[in-house]
Amino acid sequence: MNGSSVADSQVNVGVFGWLNRLMLGLIVLALIAMIVLKYLPLIRKNESMSRDLQSRRDEVQRMETQVSRNQARIEALRSDPRTIEREAREQLGLARPDENVVTFQTPDAKPR
Q1: Residue ranges of the chain whose pLDDT lies below 70
Q2: Closest CA to 80 of 44, 88, 18, 50
Q3: Which of 4, 12, 54, 92 gives a 20 to 30 Å CA spacing to 30?
Q4: pLDDT tens readout for residues 8-34
């Protein structure tokens, strides 16, 4: 009995071995599915937050551009007399003594 070959010591598990491998595969697939289902909402939330972050970065960029424009306008109003004159003409409707001011108005509502 001790001299039996290696082939004799292997057990033919047949159908049960196939079922064991199938069950192991199904368990692995179930674990993968559980992991995906658990983290899918987090992935979607991350994508949403990334879009929101990009939107806010774009808004910050627009605001920084506006700040730069406003600072340039302030500097021009402080140092450039032509800019002050132009602003007075536009906002207050002022004119030089030899000029006439013409304003155009649009009708508020159409007659019925």
Answers
A1: 1-13, 109-112
A2: 88
A3: 12
A4: 556 566 778 888 899 999 999 999 999
Long-range interactions of 6-14: CB distance < 8 A, separation 24+: none
For 33, half-sphere exposure in the C-beta direction (CA atoms, 13 angstrom radius) is 6
| Runs of H (alpha helix) within the chain | 6-9, 14-79, 81-92
Rounded CA-CA distance 88/62 in Å is 28
- The vertex-21 CA angle with 19 and 23, nearest 5°, equals 65
pLDDT at residue 101, as a whole number: 73
d(CA 74, CA 71): 5
- How many angstroms separate the Cα of 95 from the Cα of each of 5, 40, 50? 116, 67, 53
Q: Take residue 84 and report the two structure tokens written for it.
A: 């002050």
Closest to 86 in 3D by CA, of 78, 75, 94, 98: 94
Predicted structure pTM score: 0.51
Structural domain boundaries of the chain?
16-92
